[in-house]
Write a structure and sequence with these properties.
By secondary structure, this protein is an alpha/beta fold. 43% of the residues lie in helices and 15% in strands. Strands 1-2-3-4-5-6-7-8 form an 8-stranded parallel beta barrel, surrounded by 7 helices. It starts with 7 loop residues before the first strand and ends with a helix. Its EC number is 4.1.3.4. InterPro entries: Aldolase_TIM, HMG_CoA_lyase_AS, HMGL, PYR_CT. This is hydroxymethylglutaryl-CoA lyase. One of its GO terms (molecular function) is hydroxymethylglutaryl-CoA lyase activity.
Length: 300
């Protein structure tokens, strides 16, 4: 296999895809979703978040999910959790989590609205969490949101995005996922950002996280591939999205991403048929239609 043609997919549906759902989703259904995604060949699953259930009720069963994974997880795969602070990290440690994600926003307004912290405050927390995680031999991935636009401020300063990314890497994050949180990015803007980013940060430490609000996600992935990005976040059936972005239609659907990659000469290790079945399963649970065009085209 030519490793330059291998693309890593970070499947975020069990966390990012479900966290804002209003319909109560049972622990059993969450575990079945993870099982189905696992069996489809996805090697990286973000399975939950150690946040207060008061703020994110859908993540209340995260400890139970990791208890299940300790007994049934597939070797050589990554099962990660998002943690917002030291308290969340302590829960992750107690649950034997081997990899976590931290997050900050590149927009001051979005940061205050989303987590009630300034960028400086969130950076301080992220640094503390990363440092403590490293002491416990836990790998850390970082999310940087609003890199191509903010629902409150509009355009986000490119240099600020670059500087924040560099800081997260200097703190010890092995990869920073650049998030177009409200899906306003275009291929041209994505190219501009990545060219600026590559002057300061190794491209191997960058990932793309594109939302499909304006139908630009796959186009942004394509440009990112040309610039050397080889890791992308996506969510089966296009689940999830930004609750603060009017009309946000959710994450890039994993089915659509896999279809494009596999029909463009890239390898993912994912079985598309099984992936579509996983999306169909969770859509039945949620009583909704899929946001994946590929799934619609292949489901009778």
């Amino acid at each position: 296999m030519n490793h330059s043609q291998w693309v890593n997919i970070v499947e975020v549906a069990p966390r990012d895809g479900l966290q804002n759902e209003k319909l109560c989703i049972s622990l059993e259904d969450k575990i079945e979703l993870i099982q189905r995604l696992d069996h489809a060949g996805l090697n990286y699953l973000e399975c939950g978040s150690f946040v207060s259930p008061k703020w994110v009720p859908q993540m209340e069963a995260t400890s139970e999910i990791f208890e299940y994974l300790h007994k049934h997880s597939t070797p050589d795969k990554t099962y990660a959790a998002l943690v917002p602070n030291i308290k969340g990290l302590e829960s992750a440690i107690n649950n034997g989590v081997k990899e976590i994600a931290v997050f900050i926003a590149a927009s001051e307004s979005f940061s205050k609205k989303n987590i009630n912290k300034s960028i400086d405050e969130s950076i301080t927390v992220a640094r503390e969490v990363i440092k403590e995680a490293q002491k416990n031999n836990i790998k850390v991935r970082a999310y940087l949101s609003c890199v191509l636009g903010c629902p409150y401020e509009g355009q986000v300063n490119t240099q600020s995005v670059v500087d924040l990314t560099k800081q997260l890497i200097e703190f010890g994050a092995y990869e920073v996922s650049l998030g177009d949180t409200i899906g306003v990015g275009t291929p041209f803007k994505t190219l501009q950002l990545l060219k600026a980013m590559k002057e300061k940060v190794p491209v191997s430490m960058l990932a793309g996280h594109f939302h499909d609000t304006y139908g630009q996600a796959l186009a942004n992935v394509f440009v990112s591939l040309q610039e050397g990005i080889r890791t992308f976040d996506s969510s089966v059936a296009g689940l999830g999205g930004c609750p603060y972005a009017k009309g946000a239609s959710g994450n890039l659907a994993t089915e659509d991403l896999v279809y494009m990659l596999q029909n463009s000469g890239y390898e993912t290790g994912v079985n598309l048929s099984k992936l579509i079945e996983a999306g169909n399963f969770i859509n039945r649970v949620l009583v909704r239609e899929t946001n994946s065009k590929v799934s619609r085209a292949n489901t009778k």
